[in-house]
Amino acid sequence: MVGTSFQKKVWKELKKIPYGETRSYKEVALAIGHPQSARAVANACAKNPYAPTVPCHRVVRSDGNLGGYSAKGGIKKKAELLRMESQNVRKR
């Protein structure tokens, strides 16, 4: 991966988010040991050139709103990906 050390740390954490689940920018910041860096996590997601393989679409705002999505298709694509994943998750 090509990016700053912080971006790589964020992107590595994003790959841990299970299919069909979401995390908030704050939760990702906590998980990587930068609890005050939710905005920086959002910026790293916005710079993610590996979407959707590195699933930044699975990161949402703390209030549950989608936030942004800088990959092709924008916020509509993010909503579509999340909807598709939630429909394809095996019910336990």
Outline:
Helix content is 45%, strand content 4%.
Structural summary, described in words:
The chain is 45% helix and 4% strand. It has 92 residues and is mainly alpha-helical. It has a single domain (5-88), classed as Winged helix-like DNA-binding domain superfamily/Winged helix DNA-binding domain (Arc Repressor Mutant, subunit A), CATH 1.10.10.10. Helix 2 packs across helix 3 (38-46). The radius of gyration is 12 Å and the shape is globular.
Features:
mainly alpha; Arc Repressor Mutant, subunit A; two-stranded parallel sheet; 4 helices
Question: What topology does this entry show?
Answer:
Elements: H1 5-14, E1 23-24, H2 25-31, H3 38-46, E2 59-60, H4 74-88
Parallel strand pairs: 1-2
Helix pairs in contact: 2-3
